[in-house]
Design a protein that fits this description.
about 85% helix; about 0% strand; mainly alpha; about 35 residues
């Protein structure tokens, strides 16, 4: 496995995690306290 491919996979996983965190933040903000 070349470092380049590993970086691409890591970037995809990072984006997935980032989207999940953003969605959690949006849900938290949309929920009335």
């Amino acid at each position: 496995m070349t470092p380049k491919v590993h970086t691409i996979i890591g970037t995809k996983n990072f984006r997935k995690n980032h989207i999940r965190l953003v969605r959690q933040d949006l849900q938290r903000a949309a929920t009335p306290l």
